[in-house]
Specification:
- By secondary structure, the chain is of the alpha+beta class.
- Helices cover about 45% and strands about 20% of the residues.
- A 6-stranded mixed sheet has the order 5-4-6-3-1-13, with helices on both faces. The chain has a 4-stranded antiparallel sheet with strand order 10-11-9-12. A 3-stranded antiparallel sheet has the order 2-7-8, sandwiched between helices.
- A hairpin with a 4-residue loop joins strand 7 and strand 8.
- It is globular, with a radius of gyration of 21 Å.
- It binds alpha-D-galactopyranose (GLA).
- Alpha-D-galactopyranose binds next to helix 5.
- The site of alpha-D-galactopyranose has 11 residues, from helix 5.
């Protein structure tokens, strides 16, 4: 990590001839609780030791001069002319716009950023970009915004400047993460409980399917809309229902005809996943990792068969893990879906054997090599010492 920090600081100094403030924002994983954040349910994410690093200083005027180290691309724009258009710039402009709409005193910045979060792998590199930039602006201009406000600004950037109607899980985990712990986040109350993760001789292994689905954002927004339609219909029957958090499986079965098959199946997945996540958090607290793992497998097949956000490659990776259940306590697709990584809880002594097996069989079937990332749980976005 140190070399990443000095690469970003060095590039900043070379370009802007002054010393920057350095800020980092981690990637996130999610143990369980998928596609429930925008339904006001519970999720169990954590920040991991992959990060986006920012070197930043006030530019002294209203222009932002920003350089993306990994892309080798720079851009200059005024904070009064935030027109979305260009890929990674959208995220940063969205954050600036979010600050301005809150009346927070932001000005132009010089900035270099770079990181080691694989893009498109479902590890929230875009949320790390938004949250890190928001955290840095808050520090630089002493806006005194709370972390949850930074999270909502970063979410606003995705909604309004990128077009992904995402929930709050990624931003929250990136800002509030704690080392060696997951967060049991209540997405309705926007409060969390820190749950220590004791892996008892197991490792958290991500397997990157290397599948990137170009329609993922559209499909994601569609799923969200289906859930919202379900809530609207149920609200007609029971005025206390304002999200799927208020709904039980029994209620869904009662109104199956009203909902129609598609909405019924999708809403049922969400309602069950909210329950699974609460149960999974209890198992984690009582060190019952294999119970947690079983729930992860259930989540995967729910996401695949009912919620329909998986793909053949992810299903294949989870099936391989399930064949080795003695060693791989749990596995499932992670994040929005349609590609990206699976998360696996693997006996540490078995990791290299498992990787070899997966590599061999995945390549034989899909003619693609997966990547493997062993991850550790770390603290949320923070300032770094130079
Ligand atoms: C993406 C979104 C999150 C969440 C997950 C699915 O990562 O950004 O808000 O909805 O998908 O759980």
């Amino acid at each position: 990590m140190k070399s990443l920090h000095s690469a970003v600081a060095g590039a900043f100094i070379a370009q802007f001839k002054t010393t920057p403030t350095l800020v980092r924002a981690p990637a996130r994983i999610n143990l369980i609780g998928e596609h429930v954040d925008y339904n006001e349910g519970f999720v169990l994410p954590a920040a991991i030791d992959r990060e986006m690093v920012f070197g930043i200083a006030p530019s002294g005027h209203d222009r932002c001069n920003i350089y993306a180290l990994d892309q080798g691309e720079g851009i200059s724009f005024s904070i009064f002319d935030l027109n979305a258009g260009h890929t990674w710039v959208n995220y940063l402009m969205g954050v600036l716009d979010g600050f301005q709409r809150r009346g927070a005193p932001v000005h132009g910045v010089d900035c270099v950023f770079g990181g080691n979060i694989p893009a498109g792998a479902g590890l929230s590199s875009s949320a790390a970009l938004c949250c890190g930039f928001a955290f840095a602006l808050n520090e630089l201009f002493q806006c005194n915004l709370a972390k949850w406000e930074l999270a909502t600004i970063a979410q606003y950037a995705e909604h309004e400047f990128v077009g992904l109607q995402c929930g709050i899980m990624d931003q929250y985990a990136i800002l509030f993460g704690e080392s060696e712990s997951a967060l049991l986040l209540d997405c309705r109350a926007l409060t969390h409980e820190v749950v220590p993760v004791n892996l008892l001789g197991h490792a958290l292994l991500l397997v990157d399917s290397k599948v990137k689905h170009s329609l993922a954002a559209t499909a994601y927004n569609d799923r969200r809309q289906t859930c919202e339609e379900g809530v609207r219909l149920l609200h007609q029957k029971d005025k206390t229902v304002t999200s799927l958090r208020d709904v039980s499986a029994v209620m869904l079965y009662e109104h199956q005809d009203l909902l129609g098959e598609e909405r019924f199946i999708k809403c049922l997945y969400v309602v069950e996943e909210i329950k699974r996540t609460q149960a999974a958090a209890s198992h984690l607290k009582s060190n019952q990792l294999s119970c947690l793992g079983n729930l992860m497998y259930q989540t995967h097949w729910g996401l695949s068969r009912s919620y329909e956000v998986s793909c053949p490659e992810l299903d294949f990776l989870v099936s391989l893990a399930e064949d080795e259940k003695k060693w791989v306590l749990g596995a499932r697709m992670m994040g929005g879906g349609f590609g990206g990584c699976t998360i696996n809880i693997v006996d540490s002594s078995y990791v290299s054997i498992f990787e070899e097996k997966v590599l061999h069989q995945y390549f034989a079937t899909f003619k693609k090599e997966p990547d493997f990332y062993l991850v550790n749980l770390v603290g949320g976005a923070s300032r770094l010492e130079l």
